[in-house]
Model the fold of this input.
Amino acid sequence: MERHQEIWAKALWVENNKGPDAPRFIADQIARLASDPDGVARCQQIASVCEQLREGSQQ
Done:
């Protein structure tokens, strides 16, 4: 699986499993990973994709 596919798969998991709590879940993960810059960057990418998914579902 390529990196962008992994990010999208994780974003879909978050959206499907956390629903309206997805933004808070991601924020909690970012806070938990504060000392891991790569982990924070990964969570931020997932958050961006989640936002794209939410915007797409509202159209």
The chain has a mean pLDDT of 94. The two ends are 29 Å apart (CA to CA).
